[in-house]
Design goal:
Length: about 600
């Protein structure tokens, strides 16, 4: 997309090497095996330049930005003339949020290489923060090489003109953004915000309305447009704007707060009124675009700069914390969430996410204690109760999870679509502690709250309920139909296809089972459970050699300890004859 032009430029120039040092492991891969980073305060630099450099590479590969910063800082001290090393350190400082270090490194980089786009951008951001707007424009122009198509430099320059008191020149600068639909959206959006901040209401309304009409599903744009409507006295229109979005994404805290203020005829305050806040909004918007396209590295840098300019930008804080969590940096994520303004409607979300991050950090007692305090402070907070229940469920403490979900569901006056997951998760917990009638009722309630015939959520519920019915030899026709429907909804989901195949296996329909589980293995070749299942099917169909190959493969894929012992036994002895195996005909006699 055009809106990430500058992010792509970062990849194209020398900064790419520095970014790859820090983000060498994709988020999904890091989530599977990385360990929690150590606190940077507890680290000691190596005794040599080479040692610090290698330690920085290792830290970057494991996404430990704090450690990478420590080692690279020391390496630069030992070899201050190494431009490549300085650039790597600069990006590490920026990614870690060590802004003074980043500014010092950027100043030196510009002296060595004035064409370094990221360094020029960072110094331009510092100048905007210091209200040195002409200086900011000089650096932004050098970083963007004077190209009007550089959306980052153009948008930031426009806000710098507002800081200089020249809203006319600011809007003229934005008019350079033409030719791409996404450019038009950013142009109208920021022109509307600038005109609003300058008190030019009629012109602001025209631009903001154009941006809103072009994109009505973006939370930030919806909120700012509704705020503008309310501040201008059109409370009914603001309420309708919020209500339309609430139907799309129910019960979002920002929308909920706006709806509450509008209902009381209170105009929500203007969110963006200064050049610093506007520039932060530019960086947040571009970071969000990059993040949606999987470019977490560049998004991380932009969000650090956005929060530097506007420490109260709650959406930037929440997005940065989410990126850090997905990159297996829970300690850094907790520190970011702690910066969420107390007055923000997202503060409860940040506190909950901090508790979940503590759990991921390997501090289960701290996580529970943290969430218990949140719940004590806000006893009606369904989201906090749900988060605590999810922690118990992830630890396989299903009785505790079910009890916690009970409390959350008891707080609901009228369960709606947004609450489907509470019933789904409680159903799972109850099923695991052998409270099947209640579990079945919960799972059916989750389906009832998901009337849309499409979507991943409905497939998940159909999968769990359908498999449970088959596994327990109850309502077999309905259970199999649920599994088939789940596969129709998610035809590329190897886990759901495996469920259908395993249900066939449980019914003694081995040919059907083989067909489905082979499909699942093609989609998820590295999943130990699916490979284990495929081995079982092969054994039952007389393909013993292939069965042992699949079990050996499953063993090597690091299955759960309880599964590993069973797999090893099968490798040694094979499967016992299914003397008590229930065929479909027998199962129907048992209540199907």
């Amino acid at each position: 997309m055009a809106v990430v032009t500058f992010l792509k430029k970062l990849r194209a120039n020398g900064t790419a090497a520095a970014l790859s040092l820090l983000m060498v492991v994709p988020v999904a891969a890091a989530a599977q095996g990385a360990t929690a980073p150590r606190s940077a305060d507890s680290l000691e630099p190596a005794d040599s330049l080479e040692g610090n450099y290698l330690a920085a590479i290792v830290a970057g590969a494991s996404r430990d930005l704090g450690a990478a910063s420590v080692y690279l800082r020391e390496a630069v001290r030992e070899d201050p003339g190494n431009n490549d090393l300085l650039e790597r350190a600069f990006v590490a400082f920026l990614a870690d949020g060590s802004m003074p270090d980043a500014f010092r490194a950027a100043d030196r980089l510009i002296q060595l290489d004035p064409s370094n786009g990221l360094a020029q951008l960072v110094i331009g951001i510092r100048a905007i923060k210091q209200k040195s707007y002409q200086t900011a424009r000089n650096h932004l122009q050098r970083g963007g090489r004077g190209r009007a198509a550089d959306i980052t430099a153009t948008l930031l320059s426009a806000w710098s003109y507002l800081g200089s008191g020249n809203s006319k020149r600011a809007v003229e600068t934005l008019e350079r953004l033409k030719g791409e639909p996404s450019y038009n959206l950013f142009r109208d959006y920021h022109a509307g915000l600038i005109l609003d901040a300058a008190g030019r209401k009629a012109e602001a309304e025209k631009r903001l309305k154009a941006a809103f009409d072009a994109e009505k599903t973006t939370l930030r744009l919806v909120d700012l447009w509704a705020r503008f409507q309310a501040r201008n006295g059109d409370f009914d229109a603001a309420a309708a704007t919020y209500a339309d979005f609430d139907r799309l994404l129910p019960n979002h805290p920002i929308i909920r707060e706006g709806m509450g203020l509008v209902a009381k005829k209170d105009a929500p305050p203007r969110q963006i009124s200064t050049a610093q806040q506007g520039a932060a909004e530019v960086l947040y918007g571009l970071a969000s675009a990059g993040n949606r396209q999987g470019d977490e590295a560049a998004a991380l840098l932009y969000l650090r700069m956005a929060i530097y300019l506007d420490p109260g930008h709650d959406l930037a804080i929440l997005t940065l914390g989410d990126i850090l969590e997905r990159a297996r940096q829970p300690e850094d994520a907790v520190a970011v969430y702690d910066k969420m303004p107390v007055s923000s409607p997202l503060r409860p979300n940040a506190e909950i996410q901090a508790g979940l991050a503590l759990e991921n950090l390997g501090k289960p007692e701290d996580a529970v204690k943290h969430l218990d305090k949140v719940i004590a402070d806000r006893p009606d907070d369904v989201d906090a109760l749900s988060a605590l229940g999810n922690i118990y469920r992830s630890r396989k403490l299903f009785a505790e999870a079910a009890a916690t979900y009970d409390k959350a569901i008891d707080k609901l006056s009228s369960p709606g679509r947004a609450n489907w997951d509470l019933f789904y998760f409680r159903g799972i917990a109850r099923e695991r502690i052998n409270r099947w009638p209640e579990a079945e009722a919960d799972l059916r309630k989750a389906l009832e709250l998901l009337p849309d015939p499409l979507g991943r959520e409905r497939a998940l519920v159909l999968n769990y309920l359908g498999y449970s019915l088959v596994d327990k030899h109850l309502k077999l026709d309905e259970g199999l139909e649920m599994l088939r429907r789940a596969v129709e909804l998610r035809p590329r989901d190897g886990y759901i296809i495996d469920s259908l195949g395993w249900a066939y296996y449980r019914l003694g329909r081995y040919d059907d089972a083989s067909r489905e589980i082979e499909r699942a293995a093609e989609l998820r070749p590295s999943d130990p459970v699916i490979n284990d299942h495929l081995g079982d099917v092969y054994w039952r169909t007389g393909r013993q050699l292939e069965a042992k190959f699949q079990w050996n493969h499953a063993r090597d894929l690091k299955p759960e300890p309880e599964d590993l012992s069973k797999i090893l036994r099968k490798i040694e002895r094979g499967l016992e004859e299914p003397s008590a195996n229930v065929t479909e005909e027998t199962a129907k006699k048992d209540g199907g």
